[in-house]
Amino acid sequence: MGATYLVVGLGNIGAEYANTRHNMGFITLDAYAQASNVIFSTERYGDVATVRLKGNTIYLLKPSTYMNLSGKAVSYWFAKLKIPRENLLVVVDDLALPFGTLRMRKQGSDGGHNGLKSIDQHILTNQYARMRMGIGNEFGRGGQVDFVLGELPEEDRKLLPQVLATAGEAISSFVLEGADKAMTRYNRCVKPAAEPQKQEKQEN
């Protein structure tokens, strides 16, 4: 019999935040749901989708609270589904990592991230897995808020499908193989796909 997992993507609700760096958690879960051919439905404290993966059940949660209240949604679903702590994975954006870098950890500090801070406070532990999605930190003094609430530049948007596909593989690996193997395999920077080389025309 398979196990049950809760994968939470952090972000801010509202169309104005949809494609911003701070919503990488939402964006990642949307891509994973689409690849799994499931859709989200609006439930208490968030949008929820259910993925079946080789006998396991994965609940995807996008909290409908704002980022700094994410813990309320996570604690509700964590308790409702009776999820073992080791089967909780939170997907979150990270300023400290370059764009395209994935970093999964089995536990850790909130790193100054308000969403993780709220979760720690509500479930009374930081002993749960999180996958940090690098967004870079190319901003000047006082520019952090505008940066994280800004949209990805064109260069990053081109790499995004590759990043999201790799993140989806990491989520599946976490469920099927466990955090240690997923970390070994996917804690890396997703490289841009190589440009196809143009064949030079041969002169007759």
Structural description of this entry:
The structure is a single chain. By secondary structure, the chain is of the alpha/beta class. It has a single domain, classed as Peptidyl-tRNA hydrolase (Rossmann fold). It has six helices and seven strands. It has helices at 24-35, 70-80, 114-123, 144-148, 154-177, 179-186; strands at 4-9, 41-43, 46-53, 56-63, 88-94, 102-105, 129-134. A seven-stranded mixed sheet has the order 2-3-4-1-5-7-6. β2 (41-43) and β3 form a beta hairpin. The longest helix is centred in the C-terminal third of the chain and has 24 residues, at 154-177. It is globular and about 50 Å long. The model has no long low-confidence stretch (mean pLDDT 87).
The CATH class assignment is: Alpha Beta
Domain unit count:
1
CATH-defined topology: Rossmann fold
Beta-strand segment tally: 7
Instruction: Compute the average pLDDT.
Output: 87
Structural class: alpha/beta
Residue fraction in strands: 15-25%
Helix content: 25-40%
- Secondary-structure element string: EHEEEHEEHEHHH
Neighbour order of strands in the largest sheet: 2-3-4-1-5-7-6
The second-level CATH architecture is 3-Layer(aba) Sandwich
Question: What descriptive keywords fit this protein?
Answer:
seven-stranded mixed sheet, single chain, alpha/beta, 21% strand, Rossmann fold, 6 helices
